[in-house]
Each structure stands twice: as structure tokens, then as C-alpha cells.
Amino acid sequence: MSNSFIKLLVSQLFANLADIFFRVTIIANIYIISKSVIATSLVPILIGISSFVASLLVPLVTKRIALNRVLSLSQFGKTILLAILVGMFTVMQSVAPLVTYLFVVAISILDGFAAPVSYAIVPRYATDLGKANSALSMSGEAVQLVGWGLGGLLFATIGLLPTTFIILILYIISSFLMLFLPKAEVEVLESETNLEILLKGWKLVARDPRLRLFVSANLFEIFSNTIWVSSIILVFVTELLNETESYWGYSNTAYSIGIIISGLIAFRLSEKFLASKWESILFSLIAMAIVTLTILFFPNAQMFLVFSALLGMLSQLKEVPESVFLQETVEENNLVNVYSVLEVISTLAFSVFVLLMSYITESFGISISFWLSAICLMIEAILIYIRRDYFK
Fold it and tell me: Global pTM?
């Protein structure tokens, strides 16, 4: 891997770890202050809405600012905002939830600008897209695996102010590392209006059959994945496995471990995976559908953890070829526009599909939800097989 990509990887690792610590800390602090579930639930909702709005506007930002500068400036902005919030925590006994919400929104908007850019910049820095995407996925999942538990532990043991100081230090390190990212500009026609720039990614997706396939397949997968949302999978854990709610956390850990293991495999064998993109994706989808139904037919608490890890492994074996396919299909100058569209579609689809799957689970039972999940994976597999020539 190139030095440029390693700088990106390490800076993102520090930033992502700090982001998770920030969310855990703010959620816990809001709950302690308000004692309200609704007030606490507003934090992830505000983060989601803010990131969604930022994703829509990313093309306008990259029109004026180079991709590497978007990453460094957004991270620097987050650092300044957090420093102000830490100062308020230091001089005040408590900060009102409304004020905290404003900081959450501002930081999440900046983070929303960075998300599509961090994907779009990978081909600029990476010499091996397979290894690069595997490394990013592994580091991201490792941070998720460690971050939530460690963030909660830090808050519980050392308190609000020391934890936010640690987050601030991580932000500063990430901001410093991002200053050394090589320049990566997006060429924009001077004659293009802001509206044309905003619509550019949508037009690219609508016109290119390969991108339409990617979006269609992704929608089926998003719907399938909604069964793993806490409110839905908890029904399976409590009703069919007869376990407590904490067991869902164990399955999440097993899933993350599976992704990391599979990421290592994909990293070592990236050339073989990239030489057989559609075969890797097809195999993973069919295997995931089979494992999903196996979980339903043979509800066993111990095996559920094993199957969760297996699903994590299979999802990663599919994700790496998909990421490389997208990065090779779209021109570098248009990649950030397309990623912006994908972020918007994914966010909207996930929100709608979670509500739909929750209704189905409540009305018809968890078994129907698992069947629908497996069917969606099989439909996606059929789409990939029919259009396998797109991957050559």
C-alpha cells in the first residue's frame, strides 16, 4: 500500500474512534441530565438527519475544495467545535441538552461531508483497490468493535470531562495527520451551475446500467439487513432463543469479528477476489440466504453466535468486490458525486425499510421477517447472475 493511503487509513482510524467515543459520551450525558429516553434518542436521530443533509451538499463542497482539503477542514472544524464544547463542560456545571444538540448537529454535518469523500478519494491514493478496501473495512469494523464498549467504559470510570479531553486529543491527532494527505482535486466545468452539480451524480446513476444494478442490488440488501436492527433482532433473541437482551450485543461482537477475519482473508487474496468479482458476490449472497434460514430453522443460542460471525465473514467477501467494482466503473472525477447519491439513497431506504420490517415483524412475526430477508438476498443474487457481464 502507498504512503498516501496509509496516511488516510491511520487518520480515519483516529477520527472514527473519536466519533464513536463522542456519540457514546453525548448519549450517556444527555440521559443522565434529562432522564428521558426521548431526549436521549434524539442524538442518533439528529446525527442521521445532519449526515443526510451533508451528503446531499457534498458535490457543491468538492466543486470549490480539493478532496483532501474537505477531509482536513471538516476534521479541523470538528476539533474546534469539540474544543468549545469541552470548554463549556469545564466552566459550567452542566450544559443544557439543547446546546449539546446544536454541537451534535454541527459536528455531524462536517462528518457527513467527509464520509462520501473518504470513499471517493481511495482510488487516488491506493495502488491496490482490493487491499485498500479490505484494510479500510477491517479498521472501521475494529474501531466499531472496540469503540462502543471502550467509550462506555471511559465515561463510566473517569467521567464526562476527562473522556471529552481524550476525544479532543484523538481529533487533534487526526487533524494533524490529514494535513499531510496529497492533493486530490475534482475537475469541475466552470459552466456548470450549482443545480447541475447537485444533479450530476443522480444523472450518472440513472444513465449507467451498471450503477442502476448496483443501486437496485443494494436496496434489496438494505431491506434484508433490517432484521439485524436491535428492535427487530431482539424479538428473535428473546422469543426464539429465550435469551436476555444482552445476548444481542454478543451477536454484534461475533459479527464484527467475522468481518475482521474475512477482511484479513480478502486482504491476502485480493487479486483472486478481484479476478472473480461476480462469483464472489454471488457465492456470498446465496450463502448468506442459507445461513439466515438456518438461524431460523435451528434456533440455538450458541450456534447463533457462530452464524453471526459467519454472516460477518460473508458480508465482507461481498463488500470488497462491490467497492472495487464501483470505483472502477465510475471516473475518479465523478466518484464523489456518485457516493453522495448512494449515501442519500441508503440513508432514506434504511429509514423506510426499518419501519416497514418492524411493522411486518409486529404484525406477522419474526419468522416472516427472516424469510423476507433471505428472499431479498436471493433476488439480489439473481440480479448479479443475470448481469454478471457487467463485472468483467
Answer: 0.86
